Amino acid sequence: MPVAPIVKYNLFIDELSKAGHNLATAVFKAALTNTAPNLASDTVWNTTVAPAPAAANGYPAGGNTLTTSSATTTAGVFKLVLADTVFTATAGGIGPFRYVIIYNSSATNKVVASIDNGASVTLADTDTMTIDLDQINGTLTVQ
């Protein structure tokens, strides 16, 4: 999958100003859903707000845990780089889903950003979906 635009939730910035996230030590996850996120008002990810595929067939409960490649500040700009992650379907498949929700599982599942794939996708047995996060400019920056 090409790098799709990552859009921050409006309340993510507000949560940052209230020390609601420690981006350097957080455990981030990527959850899949077919329900459009409400970027203006969503505050946390859960399966009531944005139902995920069943935790089966290669999809782990809560989505994939993301690896933080770096979380650094240079010249007053903080850059968080998260490694790409791959969802691999097994018998029964995963989906349908259209959106990827990136959330902070170490901060009561507070939402960070979302990615719109543009159309719903269902992965069949052995299909993969790579969430291609920007390794150069970072998943997100704060200045």
Coarse morphology: globular
What is the helix/strand order?
EHEEEEEEEEE
Counted beta strands: 10
Beta content comes to 35-45%
Report the biggest beta sheet as strand number plus sense, adding barrel if it closes: 5 strands, antiparallel
The pLDDT mean sits at: 91
First and last CA, distance: 28 Å
C-alpha-based Rg, rounded: 15 Å
Strand order of the largest sheet: 1-8-7-2-3
- What structural category characterises the helix and strand content? mainly beta
Residues in helices, as a percent range: under 10%
Number of helices: 1
Parts with pLDDT < 50 across at least 5 consecutive residues: none
How does this model look, in words?
With 143 residues, the chain is mainly β. Helices cover 6% and strands 42% of the residues. The chain is built from one helix and ten strands. The strands form three sheets. A five-stranded antiparallel sheet has the order 1-8-7-2-3. A hairpin with a 2-residue loop joins β4 (68-74) and β5. The chain is globular and about 45 Å long. It starts with 5 loop residues before the first strand and ends with a strand.
Descriptive tags:
mainly beta, globular, three-stranded antiparallel beta sheet, 42% strand
In short:
The protein contains one helix and ten strands; from the N terminus they run βαβββββββββ. A hairpin with a 2-residue loop joins β4 and β5 (77-82). It has 143 residues and is mainly beta.
Question: Could you outline the blueprint of secondary structure elements for this entry?
Answer:
Blueprint: E1 6-8, H1 10-17, E2 28-33, E3 64-65, E4 68-74, E5 77-82, E6 85-88, E7 94-104, E8 110-123, E9 128-131, E10 140-142
Antiparallel strand pairs: 1-8, 2-3, 2-7, 4-5, 5-10, 6-9, 7-8
